[in-house]
Design brief:
- The complex is a heterodimer of chains A (626) and B (360).
- In chain A, strands 1-2 form a two-stranded antiparallel ribbon.
- Chain A is built from 18 helices and two strands.
- Chain A is 64% helix and 1% strand.
- In chain A, strand 1 and strand 2 form a beta hairpin.
- Chain A has 626 residues and is an all-alpha fold.
- By secondary structure, chain B is an alpha+beta fold.
- Chain B contains ten helices and ten strands.
- A five-stranded mixed sheet of chain B has the order 3-2-1-5-8, with no helix packed on it. In chain B, strands 4-10-9-6-7 form a five-stranded mixed sheet.
- In chain B, strand 6 and strand 7 form a beta hairpin.
- In chain B, helix 2 runs antiparallel to helix 4 and helix 4 runs antiparallel to helix 5.
- The longest helix of chain B is centred in the N-terminal third of the chain and has 34 residues.
- The radius of gyration of chain B is 32 Å and the shape is elongated.
- Classes of the chains: A mainly alpha (626), B alpha+beta (360).
- The interface between A and B is large, with 124 and 115 residues.
């Protein structure tokens, strides 16, 4: 009873705030240090897009080296300066820095912050029916810590010794010793500072997401009535909260090793003509700590994309998502298993082979819930009435990538087969498809789908379609050939393969990949144009452009602070009542009570009508307050 | 100047494209053709079908036509087993992938939006769910079973008769160390003893080190178990012998090992591949810095007889670096000189000493 009172009170408070909000906001509180979840989501989105562009450009630069090893890159000298060698080639150490920064930026800044930060922030309050996040202030801090972290990482791109260059996994001793690679000097210091701040940002955000989902759902929004997006954000936040602190610990120990002479990860090293004093540390320890985050991280970037896709596929197939409970169950299962598969990244690192056996077993188990998800998506399409909106196109693209990239996990997860494939282009193909491209497509799909809610206008569907087809085919052209290159044994992170007879072929495929990468990056400018053009000039969005059932479409076109001008709507049904037999329209919003839809109610739903009556009785005092 | 003109040209083209886009949009708006969701539905459904068919054809064709290009001939015993497992997994994956791929894009085509049709309200089906949880689970179980059996064999303990070879990685080169022909054991090493000449950090108080020799090529005998003892001096590296399906990281401060049996000599491989210039190679597969891509190490596989001949022809490290004799405890020096081949072993008495010492 007490909680109910408090809830009513806060709602009332928010309402008041909502009404007079417009009067005392200035530029700083409205757009910069804003505590409104929608503005913070946009901040994450724009920052994430900027990072995606940087990360994409970096990848194209190193693809030029790999696809056209003989071409002169002299024309890049005005931008890259000394990183272009006198012969007009990319410096081989800078090449590693490019690879490292591409990985770091894409995994953390784009697909973690840009994806979760944007959509968790934007959709959680709107879809569970809350005025805002549990703590707007912490939410604001979350963005600004991310911004600070971005600033450090961005700065590191411009220092004279170059950014970190030890791979995005920053394995010591390479990352600990500036004698080993220039990037392990100041560049690595900035990387570690940036990542520490990033983790703070993620934790502040994650705590907020979890709290909001658990405590601030509107009346009637039981856990089983939550859209799959919310479930996905919920699991993602929990995984992040449990795994990111471990990376923080690893980073901290690495800072100690680098700057304070400890030997957590260093032992028996002779470098640059001297034996270092460190003994007793273990580089393997770092790998365990890193991948204890690193593997859950894969699901941190993937689950939100899968959640978004579930929502979009159901909406645009005009069908309920098939097997809602199985979808939630498989996400839960994936979330749990994601913590016990990390060492499959380490089969040939010298780790005890018995551990290899255990992790093979656990890794292949995680394939089962992933397979279930694919089957459920495909079944959702079956007998649907599919509208190919841009968002839907990208969602189908996601499922296709998830299938193509996910299935190669069966090779890599099996330790005996992994011996040959480990650290070859097969791995590059695998994770770029299943985690990189799939999550990226989820993010793009989400932008197209919720753009009307973000900015009150529609994006151009024709440009969206062109963007999709170039990107979809382009991504396949980039990553599918890498399977062949990988089976042939080509190691990743190689600046050039000409030193080896074994790796002397495939100049043709590498050129194809590079051309496809340039074209795919080019297509993203169509998206950028569409995005910014539509913010100001797009068609005005109707209230519910996709005929969607979820709560966010019951808000005004430009939801103000507090999201709903009046009372928060109540929820009476699950979010997937699409094409219900007997219903007048092909969707029934969550806010429509069963008592108003006797024509389409299923037998057990008729039972619920009575409960609704009871509920509305309890609601009356709440209404009278206004 | 040229650049400026090109730049202006590009800007002009972009502006024109923008204007065309803007005008068509406005014209559309005036005409009142409401941009309905799903106006280009038929096109997309068709494109998805075309994509599915063309990409599958491309995939099957390339995989078949270029098979020899992307598969490496295998030259080790366990490699045959893991390759076999690889192709079993491949068969399962290709079948599953093709089926799901076809079904998915067929559905997108068949169930594209049609005015007035209503989608099926299909919420749940426990039988289906259980079916497609169980099938992957069973397939996984089979793969795991086979995989783990192979893994246990590969990573199991090596036999006592195995040929021991040490590989030492550093930025950006490999060196190999072999036990000399008078014993089958490598001498101890310590990173603190490394200097400009003693690149292994050989511990010369250990008698086994006297006849060890250094090689800048990896020589392997066929049909004998080989144990690679892998060390790194500075950062992580990784031994990768692609034709032998061997990969193991080199970790500073930790000895790693990999055991395998090579089955084909370089010469046999030249005949098999029809390439008279064929050579085995070893590469580094763990990012290690600027020269990561250049850490090539030549590999020569020969039959037991010529391997032993080669081994016997190699000078011991100590013989090449006689300055280090003074690091050897005095009572062992003469023995070291004999064992390292610096001093001819004449006289039965000395031979007797040698035997008793090495038998200890």
């Amino acid at each position: 009873m007490a909680t109910a009172d408090i809830k009513v009170h806060t709602e009332a408070h928010h309402d008041d705030h909502g009404h007079d909000h417009e009067h005392h906001g200035n530029f700083w509180t409205n757009y910069i240090f804003c505590q409104d979840h929608k503005v913070i989501a946009k901040q994450f989105l724009i920052t994430g897009m900027a990072w995606a562009l940087i990360g994409g450009i970096l990848s194209v630069i190193f693809r030029l080296q790999l696809g056209f090893p003989d071409a002169s890159l002299e024309w890049l000298r005005p931008v890259l300066g000394g990183w272009i060698t006198p012969e007009g080639k990319i410096d081989s150490e800078f090449y590693l820095a490019l690879v490292t920064m591409h990985g770091t930026i894409m995994v953390f800044f784009v697909l973690t912050a840009g994806l979760s930060g944007t959509f968790s922030n934007f959709l959680i309050p709107l879809q569970v029916g809350a005025r805002d996040m549990a703590s707007g202030f912490m939410n604001m801090l979350s963005y600004w810590f991310f911004f600070l972290s971005s600033a450090f990482m961005f700065t590191s791109l411009f220092i004279s010794t170059g950014p970190a260059g030890g791979g995005w996994t920053i394995y010591p001793p390479l990352s600990a010793l500036p004698q080993a690679i220039q990037g392990s000097g100041l560049g690595m210091t900035l990387w570690l500072i940036s990542m520490a701040l990033f983790i703070v940002s993620t934790l502040l955000g994650g705590i907020n997401y979890i709290t909001t989902i658990i405590n601030m759902r509107t009346q009637g929004m039981s856990f089983t009535r939550m859209p799959l997006t919310i479930w996905a954000f919920f699991f993602t936040a929990i995984i992040g909260l449990l795994s990111f602190p471990v990376l923080f610990g690893a980073a901290l120990l690495l800072i100690f090793d680098r700057s304070f002479g400890t030997s957590f990860f260093l032992s028996d090293i002779y470098i640059a003509g001297e034996a270092l004093p460190n003994v007793g540390g273990s580089p393997i320890l770092f790998q365990h700590l890193f991948w204890f985050l690193g593997h859950p991280e894969v699901y941190i970037v993937l689950l939100p994309a899968l959640g978004i896709t579930s929502e979009i596929i159901a909406t645009n197939s005009r069908k309920p998502i098939f097997g809602y409970k199985a979808m939630v169950g498989s996400m839960l299962f994936i979330a749990i298993l994601s913590f016990v598969v990390w060492a499959h990244h380490m089969f040939v690192t010298g780790m005890n082979p018995f551990l290899g056996s255990i992790f093979t077993l656990l890794t292949l188990i995680i394939a089962v819930p992933s397979a279930v998800k694919i089957f459920n998506y495909v079944t959702t399409l079956w007998k649907g009435n599919i509208r190919f909106t841009s968002a839907m196109l990208f969602s189908i693209g996601l499922v296709s990538f998830f299938l193509t990239g996910g299935i190669t996990g069966l090779f890599l997860g099996n330790s005996a087969v992994d011996i040959q494939l480990h650290d070859t282009y097969f791995v590059v193909a695998h994770f770029h498809l299943v985690m990189g491209s799939a999550s990226f497509f989820g993010m793009i799909a989400g932008i197209y789908h919720w753009f009307p809610k973000f900015f009150g206008r529609m994006m151009d569907e024709r440009l969206g379609a062109v963007h999709f087809w170039i990107t979809f085919v382009g991504v396949y052209m980039v990553f599918f050939p890498m399977h062949y290159i990988g089976i042939a044994g080509f190691p990743r992170r190689y600046y050039s393969w000409t030193n080896f007879e074994t790796f002397s072929s495939f100049a043709d495929l590498n050129m194809l990949v590079s051309i496809a990468a340039v074209v795919t990056l080019g297509a993203q400018f169509i998206f950028l144009f569409n995005f910014f053009y539509s913010i100001w000039r797009g068609r005005v969005a109707p209230a519910n452009p996709w005929g969607s059932t979820t709560l966010e479409w019951t808000t005004p076109r430009h939801p103000g602070h507090g999201n709903w001008p009046g009372e928060i709507p109540h929820v009476y049904r699950w979010p997937y009542d699409y094409s219900k037999p007997g219903a007048k329209e092909d969707y029934i919003p969550q806010t429509v009570p069963y008592s108003e839809t006797p024509e389409s109610n299923l037998p057990h739903e008729n039972e619920l009508v009575k409960l609704e009556m009871g509920n509305s009785g309890a609601i009356i005092p709440d209404d009278k307050r206004h | 100047m040229m650049n400026l003109i090109i730049g202006i040209g590009v800007v002009l083209i972009l502006v024109i494209v923008y204007m065309i886009f803007r005008i068509t949009n406005l014209v559309g708006l005036v005409k009142g053709d409401k941009e309905k969701a799903g106006s280009g539905n038929g096109i997309h459904a068709f494109l998805f079908m075309a994509f599915m068919i063309l990409s599958l054809i491309g995939f099957y064709w390339y995989s078949y036509a270029h098979f020899d290009k992307y598969t490496l001939p295998v030259a080790s015993e366990h490699g045959v087993i893991t390759d076999n497992l690889f192709w079993i997994t491949m068969a399962i994956c290709v079948i599953a992938f093709t089926l799901i791929f076809i079904v998915m894009f067929w559905f997108t085509y068949k169930y594209q939006y049609k005015e007035g049709r209503k989608a099926e309200y299909f919420v749940d089906n426990h039988k289906l769910e259980i079916l497609w949880t169980l099938i992957p689970a069973i397939v996984m179980a089979l793969l795991i079973f086979r995989g783990l059996r192979a893994w246990n064999d590969i990573t199991g303990p090596s036999s006592k008769e195995a040929v021991v070879i040490e590989l030492v990685a550093q930025q950006f080169a490999w060196t190999a160390r072999y036990p000399g022909s008078t014993d089958e054991a490598l001498g101890k090493a310590d990173f603190r003893l490394i200097d400009a000449n003693n690149e292994f950090g050989l511990d010369l108080t250990d008698k086994n080190s006297f006849d060890d020799f250094k090689s800048l090529e990896l020589h392997l005998p066929t049909n004998k178990e080989i144990v690679l003892k892998i060390r790194a001096k500075d950062v992580l590296h990784s031994v990768f012998l692609p034709h032998f399906r061997v990969k193991m990281d080199a970790v500073p401060g930790m000895l790693t090992t990999f055991k395998f049996v090579a089955t084909k000599t370089t010469q046999q491989m030249r005949e098999e591949t029809g390439n008279p210039n064929f050579n085995y190679e070893m590469a580094c597969t763990e990012i290690c810095g600027k020269g990561h891509f250049s850490m090539r190490f030549p590999v020569i596989v020969e039959d037991e007889e010529s391997y032993q001949k080669w081994r016997a022809s190699q000078e011991s490290w100590l013989k090449q670096n006689p300055d280090y004799l003074n690091r050897i405890p005095e009572n062992l020096r003469e023995f070291a000189m004999i064992k390292s081949g610096m001093q001819p072993d004449n006289g039965a008495a000395e031979q007797g000493i040698l035997k008793t010492v090495s038998n200890r």
